[in-house]
Records
---
Amino acid sequence: MSKRWSKGLVLASLLVAVGLSGCYEPEPRPRIIGQDRPVAMPARQTAPQSRMLGRSVQGRPIVAQILGNGSDTTLILATIHGDEAAGTPLVRKLADHLAANPQVLEGRRVVLVPSANPDGAAAGTRENIRGVDLNRNFQTANRVDNATNGLRPLSEPETQALQRAIQEFRPDRIISVHQPLDCIDYDGPGRELAAYLARFCRLPVKKLGARPGSLGSYSGEHLGIPTVTLELPAGATGLDEARLWSLYGPAMTAAITYSLPASK
């Protein structure tokens, strides 16, 4: 090999080595439109809050769990009759579902009261510990004063707690979970909401009529809040939480995402 060829080979090898070592200015990468803009993050949901609404006759807490901070508010409560226990695990499962799916709460607020009659639930009785039916104890035009309904409206601390929740949160709709009539009842301007929820479960809509001193008479007929009673069947008490959710969870979620008629 000639000296000239040998020097040329060495020079070429040095140039390749310099190139591989990065001692050159690379071509700029293609610019992606919008890559220099800040990434839009989803709206931050506030952490769930608990609010003490009051205490039962025996001192058990009546607690509301508040999720979301939007202007559209849904109040959902269960077990105002202590022997209608299936609604409590269903409402608790709804709280878990909303925490895991915060997009449902966009622009919305949900107030959950899993047990409105904790003394009755502990004793397995329809009434509270003083023998008063809390769903007949509200101040309404059709109420009847007696020992079962209460000698006066709002005589019971549990009913006072629920009225306090309605006054404070001013819900756009109210869902109360009951048993065992196996239907969807409504009061006030709640017919369209009831029909909508029936699309998400097997319960038929059945208008039972506003009962004297009931929550529906108070919130639906007196205050004009669409109020729906989700009447689960008697056998729902024996179902586990997962089965309850599979049957009625879609209707519970639909109540939250329901759009009120423009005329309201």
Note: Helices lie at 3-20, 87-100, 118-123, 157-169, 191-198, 215-222, 241-257.
---
Amino acid sequence: MTGHYVNYRKQVSGRELLPEQAFGLFGICSRRPRDLFAAVPPETVQAGVYLCRRGTDVIRIVVAAELPTAEHNALLHLFSAADDRVQYGAKHYELPTADVSTLVNKLFAAYRREGLTMPYTMDDFRKEVAREVLHKLTPEERLRGLSAQEIENYLRRLRRKPKDANANRRKPKR
């Protein structure tokens, strides 16, 4: 994080480096970062907010699962990995506009529809979006990005008869 900060500071400063006070380092995490806090003892600012000092740098760490359940924390609670906090966030966060991230909208919808126990990963999200969008694409758009060999292999699999699929199965031993 500090490496990125130094690089960013140099890029935006021009010839004269802007003062360190013009920048803030923030780390936001779902749960308490045990290893970091074991290596760099934190100073508590308030519930769920800590300061870690590294040389002259001060990094503010926000632990979403430890933040108080308050309206202004609702968005962070969605990423807290604590069921009660996520439920609070899903009920209390108001989207600022209709154009807010598709991912956040889908996250809200999934929480409201299925609850929190669903094992929903980023890969699941990508597959779900692909299924929703796929039927809207033209055949050319669907095949874009596939090589001729990939298309041929797919067509070959489609043409196989059901008996071919069972041909490679072993018979049970008696």
Note: The chain has nine helices and four strands.
---
Amino acid sequence: MNINNAAFCRSYGEFEQIPPSDKCEIVFSGRSNVGKSSLINKVFNRKKLARVSSVPGKTATINFYSCDDIYAVDLPGYGYAKISKSEKQRWKRLIEGYLTSGRNIGLVFQLIDMRHAPSEDDLHMLDFLIDSQMPFAVVFTKADKLKPRERAERMEGFASEIPCYEDIKTICFSAETGEGAEEIRSIMNEFSDNG
């Protein structure tokens, strides 16, 4: 996978609009403002591949980015309270439709803000991934925002807060320092090579 070949493909606001899978899809999932767009930009070493917003809930579409023989797929952030019920329902249909439709999903990177315990929505998503036996890894974002002692405490907390923690691949990530970007790239490469 040559990260220089990464390009934005399309955004889809309704599940029915998404064309059938034609190559391996690596999915980025997480709550609003967890840093999915920043992570995608860092992993592909581009400043503006994915649009970053300081406003939570900005990504209301599923965004596809092509890179050689994989797609990086950015799901809308969940858990943002200040949107209408109908919009929440649309997001739910979009995300659930995408994840349960038998697409060629190689792996889900489930992003969780390292500074906080997983939200109820995060835990629902993790339960779904475990129950559906979908391959996934947990990425703890905003790693640079914690002092070493706080970080150690949060990592200890996650071990008891996240179900099946000892069996899950975890990566600490910072869009500021680049920590974890190479590891994520390397995992994506494995799927690209096997595709």
Note: The first strand starts at residue 7 and ends at 12.
---
Amino acid sequence: MIIDTTYILPLARISVDKDLLKASVDGNAALNLDDVTVSLISLFELQANAVRLTVPAKHVAEAADTILKALKVEPFYNPEVLEASFELRRIISDYIDCVILATAVSLKEDLVTEDSRILAKRTLIKQVYGVRVMSYDDIVKK
């Protein structure tokens, strides 16, 4: 399963409303951390958010180290990801989001995201690419 950048922000001590990794560790999410993959571009996006929010660099470095040790990280320059991201640009305007979605498409894995533009296209994405797009609320036990 591919997770969007939002869900790795807490590792850099950036507060989010929907902490998927914590929910998984607590046994409240239908998600096995051994099966989680993030796009390498999410580490860049994590850094960009941290700079904007003035999070200390030390926290970002610790988060990146944890991600690289605990999760699978897929390069955004993988030829299949690149090809899919260029194609997805026709339906998703933000290129970083295209890369994250393209990672799911190229690996044929589900994507979990809070991005409203991707979620709005989830039916089309499932029909065309065979990838299920879900949100936090879809996989966390209430």
Note: The domain at 2-137 is CATH 3.40.50.1010 (Rossmann fold).
